User: Fold Leucine-rich repeat-containing protein 42 from Donacobius atricapilla.
Amino acid sequence: QSWSRGMSYCLHSEGHSDTGPIYVRENGKLHVVNQGAGGIQNVTPKARPFSLFSRSFSVELCMNREDDRARRQRTDHFIFTYTKEGNLRYSAKSLFSLVLGYISDNVDHIDSLIGFPEQIAEKLFSAAEARQKFTEPVTGLRALQKFTEAYGGLVLCSLCLRNRYLVISEKLEEIKSFRELTCLDLSCCKLGDEHELLEHLTKEALSSVKRLLLKDNCLSDAGLRRMTAPIRVLKKGLENLLVLDLSCNPKITDLGIGYLLSFKKLNCLDISGTGLKDVDAVIKRLQMQIGLVHSKVPLKEFDHSNCKTEGWAEQTVLQWEQAVMEALKPQDNLRSRVATLRFYGKTRRIEEVVKCTVVEPETIASGNLQFYKENVQSCNLPLKKEVAGSHELKNNKKRALAEQETERTSKQKHLCLTVEDWDLLNTY
Assistant:
């Protein structure tokens, strides 16, 4: 009775709000109190879904980047694999791999790598390259410079940028950071005489270049004059150049060929497709002064198959090219516009990218003007049969040239630089 009075008091209380059904446990059984009738039913209550929040309540999930980075670092310490039974198995990484990953994540903060072991540096470069650290605009250049300053040709000994003028324009500073290159292919890039990369060729960092391919780059006599100025005046710059390709540059004339006579070590030269006026005079001049012989057969040195990108940064250059191509993908939508213009008979304003070919029609029309040295095996061409008595003539020519060279060098020791030479030096 006391229990029923208390319950009726609670149910009929004026200040009590509607709280739904009330459950009471008595003698090991659960009873529900019916508020409407004010009685008690001995039935088992049905399961009612429990809702913690009202229907108008909304939840927004926010991820903290620092927490996510910490979580990723915790999982990066383990290697997860699966057994034959399909069970997940994990093993801890070595301390070396953990330290290598940490340094590669912060490779742009390294002060210097000079004196650091090459074997470890190569693994560090590969780890940073896998994280695409060298593709970042500012930090990538700073990190790449640390490696090129310390290891030079190991980072990249040969670079092929043939028909990749977009990569040159986007990653010019990164390309200029490479040191001790032996082969550089800049064919079909339309650089011109005033490009910054051509000026960089005369710097001491690229004095090790032995193969330089500048086919179809809109070069003229002024460009050759600037490119050969350091070696003509100061005997520095491209003094180790062995192979030079200047084909398909119609603005190069007989005057520009005179600047090439300063390359005394040159073994192979290609000037096909240039604007020469007196070809016979140029052939005789090259043969007499630097010993280059006109080849009747195309040389294998200029087939663009020997110059490839080689070194630690080989994949880095591919990443640069892929990034440039992905940036140009939105332009693919312009094809529909071209089709529309064709349908309405309008002229096409969008021109396709002109690809450079190995053999140009202009070269075939003007003839093959490739030169090589007979006494050098680097140019892959069979030597010509010598006529009887030609040995003595060649020896006499060599002696005469040697005497002229000694006289010229002895005079240069006593002569000072002219005003034109000082003006030329001041331009650099």
